[in-house]
Every structure is written in structure tokens, then in C-alpha cells.
Amino acid sequence: MAEREIEVVIHLWCTRRSASTSLMYSFAQRDDTEVLDEPLYANYLRVTGAQRPYREELLSKMESDGDKVVKDIIFGPGQKKYRFCKHMATQRLHGLPDNLMESGNHCILIRNPLDVLTSYDKETRPSISDLGYDSLVSIFSDLHSRGNTPYVIDSDLLREDPKATLRGLCDDLGIPFQDEMVKWESGAKPFEGMWAPYWYKNAHESTGFEPPRKYTSAFPSSLYELLEQSMPFYDFLKRYVRMNTTKALNPKLPVFANAKLLAWVGDEIVPRESAKVSVFDSIVQGGDAVWEGLRIYNGKVFKLEEHLDRLFDSAKALAFNNLPTREYVKEAIFKTLIRNGMFHNAHIRLTLTRGKKVTSGMSPAFNLYGCTLIVLAEWKPPVYDNESGITLVTATTRRNSPNNLDSKIHHNNLLNNILAKIEGNNSYADDAIMLDKDGYVSETNATNIFLVKKGCVATPHADYCLPGITRATVMELVVKQNLVLRERRISLSEFHTADEVFTTGSMGELSPVSNLFIK
Predict the structure, then answer these.
(1) How many CA within 13 A on the CB side of residue 446?
(2) Taking the CA atoms of the chain, what radius of gyration do you get in angstroms?
(3) SS3 letters for 261-309?
(4) Is the backbone of residue 361 left (phi > 0), alpha (psi -120 to 50) or beta?
(5) Share above pLDDT 70 across residues of the chain, in percent, rounded to a whole number
(6) First to last CA, the chain
(7) 72-105 exposure pattern, b = at least 16 Cβ within 10 A, e = fewer
(8) Taking every pair of C-alpha atoms in the chain, what is the biggest distance, in angstroms?
């Protein structure tokens, strides 16, 4: 067959034990694609001096000049329309021609290091560079900076649903999918490298993508440090994996700018996807934390001192130990806002957990690490329609009594409120009014509530509800305006017949109620 110019070169960058050979077999089944198995291998051995059982034979049979490999072999003429090149990430060395990265379509194959490391024999201890995750991230970053962002494939998804994953990959690469890609004949292949007898035993026995094992063997504790070193690289790349339709969960953010926010967790500022707490943290173990919602206007945090008073009062009421200082919390707030450039129309969810435990369990005696501080700043306009007004419905879920869990403690155990919010959602209302045990109005699931009747402003006693800071501000303003203010028990019917009803809270500010449905 006469040689022709290859239309598209497809580069697969991968690491060992990642199903990369199976993916090479898959592309070899296409009638329009030829494959190359690690064309940069000889150059890698020559430059690095790495030892392999077949080193001398390989160097004698393969081109070892990187420039020539790229020009004459990877991008040289061929016999088919497409060329698929399988590359080990570690074989991409400094000094190779730029067009290796600038030309062709690139994809990266990843596999969870938990599974990769488990597959190593007890006698074999790889290094972090042997695993190649750092090299994959370097390749991704280089390609991305060149405007040639690679497609990322997770080997587990590929093996779980080969057809869907391959179809998606082909769509990304701009080539038609072929059904033949999911099956092949067992045995050695003529296009394989001479190292195949050493490494491809399992691949030779396969006739398609083997599904991941449901239960694997125990993880070797001797490799735990390597796992810790590898996971950040894997987690970074996993964010860019093309998910199959059935597994894709990529909801649109309410405010797109929040995709790149920075959050304070513990004692440092980290990117959004790295903003996580330990599974041993009390907030995970039992919702054991306190919190505040803060709004930022024109470079200032509204009522910051009052919010911090309540935060520390709540922590004291729950007997937190090893609290950070007030100044430390302030610094964390200000540093987070400055790093994000958030000086107006922003909101902070400020959380202080009891901290990480030494072992799972309910007892605060296990909390020996000190509290965990979280400063989550977001671009967030008021969450309600404060022009047209909001709709409220009454919930059957009653507000917690101080006999059970005092609402004056601003804690993170919000199930009582969440159950009421679910009722509101099911009724297509913005929020739900919650009653106390005697049937009087307490608050909504998220805000305090006021009514106006014949010039008098009234709000429920703070026996069952949280005495909100925005609520207190409104009450102060009412008094300053020489209006009549009443804090008392208020029945549902009074809200139903009021001249005006509105809610108050940091997230929604002041929200007029346009519709009130009483059940």
C-alpha cells in the first residue's frame, strides 16, 4: 500500500498499568488507523540510561534520536488516515521538538493510584517518578498553555462502559466511532514493541476491555506514602475527565465566577476543588459545628462584630475547646476576601467545627486537634426576588423547642430546617413558615419574619427562632423611626390578615412576601 500523509496523529499519554495497551488494541481495530507502540522508548533509554532486560536489543532495533522519531516516525507518512501513538508520560523528555506537543490531538489516560499501587508485587517498590502522575500533570499543563488542551479518560470508566467512553473520545477527537473498537483477537500483535513479552501477558489474554474488579486485594501499607503523593496529581486530572452521559454530573453554577473561588479551610487558602475537610471532622461525624452568614457591602462586612459574638457564644454553648482567637478569625475572613477580590455583593459562610477526631465516634473527647475554621466566600446576590416578593407556605415540621435543641445556638445540625424547606420545595414556594409546639409562628426555615398591621410592626418572640442579626437591625430601625414595635406570640391568621409581611436574613436581606399559603 502506498504511503500517504497522515491526516491526524492521536497522542495517548499514559502511565503503566492503566489499560493503555487495551486502548491501543482498540484503535488498531479501526480500518482507518495505524498504531505506534511507545515510539519514544528508545530515546528515553538512551537519554536517561535506564536499565531494562531488553535495553541493548531495543536500542539496536528502534530509532533512538528523539528529533528523528518525532519528524520521521510520529509525523512521518503512513498508509492510513489516522495514526495512534501510545506514549508513556515519563518518556516525554526535555529537548524533544516542540511540534510533538503542538501538533495532533492529545489525550491522557489516568487510573486511580489506589488501584495502580495495589497491582505492584511486594518485592517491587516504585518511585513517584516511576508512577508518572507528575509527568501527566506536566503534560496536561504544557498542552493547555499551548491552547491544545488534552482530553482526559479515566480507565475505570473506559473499562466499565467501553462503547460509551470510546464514542465520547472519538467525538472529542473529531473522528467517527467504529463498533470494531470494543473487541479484538487474543494473542500478540504485530505492531507491539519488543518489550511486549515482558509486560503484555494479561493484554494478550484479553479480547476486549476487562471490567474493573468489584473487590480488590488489600492495599499494601508500605506504599501509603506513595499513594498520598500521587493522589493530588490524579485528583487534578480527574476534574477534566469526560464523563459518560449516564455518569455526567456537571451542574451549572448559579454564578459562574464562583468556579474559581478560593476558600479558607483549616489554616490555609485553597482552590474550590481542594476545599475539603477530613472524614474525621466533627461536622462530618455529627454536624457538630457553628456558623454565621456574612454579607459584604462596599468593602465592609455587615455587622461583623455581632456575627462573631454569636459565633463564639454558640461555640461556648457547645463546649468547644481550643478555639481560634477572634483576631485570627477576622484575619482569615479578610485574607480570603482579598485573595478573591470580593469587596461587594459577596457572601461568606463562616463555619467553625469542633475539629478533627482521632477516631470516629460521638464523644468530643476524641477531638484532639483543635477546631477547624472554614471561610467560604462567594459572589452571591440576594437569594430571593426582593422586587416582586416571595411565596411562603406553612410547614408541618415544627421548629425545635429549647427543650430539645436551642435555636439560639447557631449550629450546623440543620435537619429541622431542611425538612421544612423540603416541604416548601414540594409546594413550589420560596420558603416555609415554621410553627412552634403551640402553633404560633416562629420563623421560616431560613429567615426571621415580620408583619405590619395598622402601622404596628410585629415579630415573633425569639423563644424558638434564631434571634437574627438582620432581625435586630430592623427592630432598631423601627424604633428609631418612632414606629410601634411588638415582639410577641403571633398566630398564622394574623400573618394572613396583615397589611404587609416580610422576612429578614443575611442571605436574602429584606424580602417582601407576596403570597402566603396557610395549610
Answers:
(1) 24
(2) 31
(3) CEEEECCEEEEHHHCCCCCCEHHHHHCCEEEEEEEEECCEECCHHHHHH
(4) left
(5) 98
(6) 80
(7) ebbbeebebbbbbbbbbbbbbeeebbeebbebbb
(8) 98
The three cell numbers of residue 92 are: 516525554
| H or E, element range at 472 | helix 469-480
Residue 281, sorted as left (phi over 0), alpha (psi -120 to 50) or beta, turns out to be beta
pLDDT > 90: what percent of the chain?
90
- Read off the C-alpha cell for 357: 477526631
Q: What is the DSSP letter of 453?
A: E
Residue 344 is classified by DSSP as S
**What does DSSP say about strands 105-110 and 151-154: parallel, antiparallel, or unpaired?**
parallel
**375-413 residue pLDDT tens:** 999 999 999 999 999 999 999 999 998 888 888 999 999
CA distance 206 to 440: 70
pLDDT in tens, 273-282: 899 999 999 9
C-alpha cell, 12: 495517548
Q: Does residue 362 contact residue 397 with C-beta atoms inside 8 Å?
A: no
Q: How far is CA 126 from the centre of its chain?
A: 29
What is the SS3 assignment for 193? coil
CA pair distance 264, 249, nearest whole angstrom: 25
Over residues 230-245, mean pLDDT: 87
What are 79-94's pLDDT values in tens digits?
A: 999 999 999 999 999 9
Residue with cell 454565621: 292
Provide the mean pLDDT of the chain.
Answer: 94
Closest by CA position to 356, among listed 290, 287, 278: 278
Report yes or no: 354 and 289 within 8 Å, Cβ to Cβ. Answer: yes
d(CA 182, CA 70) in angstroms, rounded, equals: 29
Residues 518, 496 contacting (CB under 8 angstroms): yes
Residue 481: exposure state from Cβ atoms within 10 A (0-12, 13-18, ≥19):
exposed
**Which residues, including other chains, have CB under 8 Å from residue 267's CB and lie 6 or more apart?**
373
Q: Tell me how far apart the alpha carbons of residues 513 and 500 are, in angstroms, rounded to a whole number.
A: 8
HSE of 218, CA atoms in CB hemisphere, 13 A: 4
Q: What is the pTM of this model?
A: 0.84
Q: H-helix or E-strand containing 182?
A: none
Is the confidence at residue 240, as pLDDT, over 70?
yes
More confident residue, 38 or 212: 38
